[in-house]
Amino acid sequence: MKGKPVETNDLRALGETHQDTHGIIRGSRRLHHHPWHVVILVWGVAIILAFFILGPLCWLSLHAFASNWTYPHLLPEGWTFHWWTVVFSDPGLGVAIHNSLVFAPLTVAISAVICLPAAYSLSRIPFPGRRVVLVGLFATNAFPKMGLFVTMSTLFTALNLMNTVTGILIVHLLGTIVFMTWLPAAAFSAVPRNLEEAARDSGAGWWRTFLTVTLPIAWPGILVALVMCFLASFDESQGTYLVGAPTYMTMPTEMYSLVLNSPRQVAAVFSIILTIPSVVLMTLARRHIMGGRLADGFQIR
Amino acid sequence: MAAPTAVVLVFVAFPVFNALLFSLGFTGGINSTLAEIGQDIISTPSFAVFENLFHDSMYMRDLGATLIVTFASTVLTIGAACVISIILRLYGGYLGKLLSILAVVPLFVPVVIASWAILTFYDGTGFLRSVAASLGFSAPTWGFTLTAVTIGSVWTSLPFAVLLIAGAMQGIPDALLEAAHDAGAGNWQAIWHVLLPLAKIPLTIASTFTFIGVLGSFTVPYFTGPNSPTMLGVDLSRYFTAFNRPQQSTAQAFVVFAFASVAAGLYLWATMHSNEQTS
């Protein structure tokens, strides 16, 4: 009775090709039959959490299809797609969507080029300043983002980078560096060295070893980094607003003015559109994020 | 490792160092442009900017509000993450998995949207008040209060805390829990003496990240919070753009950074400690 679930767990673990062993999706098992008050407690937590997390999202989504909604009715007076046509016919919003979809992939590409080689060497070359570098990169996170942008704008004004694409890309890049170095560095570190050595012994060169052994094993971690990086850029609003507005508006910065100047329903429609890329990307990487890649990457090794 | 370090040195370390000089009254060099257009600039090297800040009762009130919201959000986030992780580990099953998936949902939602959604949910015409009104009593209006900021901060910080803490607790072997039960420990004792102590380091890391994140946050308090007292992140931006007082703004950044550094120190200690344990 007690041993059986363990065996199924172990078999499942053996069957996994990737190494997400510490993930939170790993099968849990019951140690005991649960007394009724524990069951009630757990259901209570589940209901409160569902209300807390999903409540605001559902409430907001309903607004996108509501014709008119007066307090204190729990449902709107009617349903309409009118607000969607309002959003899609506004040229400013189209430009914002376009800008966001240009800046985010560009940021990911630049960040990957700058950070991935560094992540690899951080995981492979033992040098005394290794931790200093990792910690130094982390310091960009510890300094308040808003403070960083304010201090940076001094430099940007001096370098004529205010209201330029370069300036915005630098702001976005800074928000991605920690993800792009730490997560891939952890992923590269997790690749078993003996596999690489075996490939080298059988005559594969460095590139071949890297492309056929190291990269495929480290890929989930890199994928999570790429996704987090895209979203960090896509969601960035404070710095973009400070450096780019009003010349370059992105979807999140547009949201600031929408909330102030438009009917609630328009902001709701825009919110749904703005959430789509996140949901798609996160769903693609969900297994690895839940599998512990994100959590593992934030422990300095 | 040269490239990202260089980027950080040029676009973070250098401006930060420069901003420190600016806030201490050195207004030459690349600071001169800002010093010319900004108001209330102090151009003699001194701690005067900081002294003025700490004598500003409005600012001190904001600082107090920020620390309270940050502590409350951190405690609530880590508490909720622990409850979810413990249920996932000990209870498991579909309900446990459902809880963990629910807790990670905010990771999928841009912070701007989350703040806006939370504001509309809890404000004067929001869901909470509508339900209460249809049941015949009046619920508090949390929109534009520090309560809403705390709710928003917990909402946005929860996924990362759950991933870290649940990840650690799922990695604790069944054998240890069984040993505890065989020794006569109940569920509560198993939680207190096995699960929580073994997840100590991820708990520290999650707390630090939450603390630093909420402390310097801008979007959540900007959307959901009151005008006064407000969070320091909003103050920072307001002093810079609306009040045109860049020197005070940079000084405020260092005040936030000072508090964040204390938390970051804790984080570094925890991760270094974990390295010693694993290696």
Task: Tag the structure with descriptive keywords.
heterodimer, A: 301 residues, mainly alpha, MetI-like fold, 13 helices, 75% helix, disordered N terminus, B: 279 residues, 14 helices, 77% helix, transport (chain B), cell membrane (chain B)
Walkthrough of the structure:
The complex is a heterodimer of chains A (301) and B (279). Chain A has 301 residues and is an all-alpha fold. Chain A is built from 13 helices and no strands. Chain A starts with a helix and ends with a helix. The N terminus of chain A is likely disordered. By secondary structure, chain B is mainly α. Chain B has a single domain, classed as MetI-like fold (Orthogonal Bundle), CATH 1.10.3720.10. Helix content of chain B is 77%, strand content 0%. Chain B contains 14 helices and no strands. The longest helix of chain B is centred in the first third of the chain and has 35 residues. Chain B is globular, with a radius of gyration of 23 Å. The relative contact order of chain B is 0.13. Classes of the chains: A mainly alpha (301), B mainly alpha (279). Chains A and B meet through helix 2, helix 4, helix 5, helix 6 and helix 7 of A and helix 1, helix 4, helix 5, helix 6 and helix 7 of B.
Q: Give the tally of β-strands of chain A.
A: 0
Question: pLDDT below 50 for ≥5 consecutive residues: which ranges of chain B?
Answer: none
**What is the gyration radius of chain B calculated from CA atoms?**
23 Å
Helix-strand string of chain A: HHHHHHHHHHHHH
Could you outline the blueprint of secondary structure elements for this entry?
The complex is a heterodimer of chains A (301) and B (279).
Chain A: H1 3-15, H2 36-63, H3 82-89, H4 91-124, H5 130-142, H6 145-159, H7 165-189, H8 193-201, H9 206-235, H10 238-244, H11 251-261, H12 264-290, H13 293-297
Chain B: H1 2-23, H2 32-37, H3 48-55, H4 57-91, H5 93-104, H6 111-122, H7 127-134, H8 146-170, H9 174-182, H10 187-198, H11 200-215, H12 219-224, H13 232-242, H14 246-278
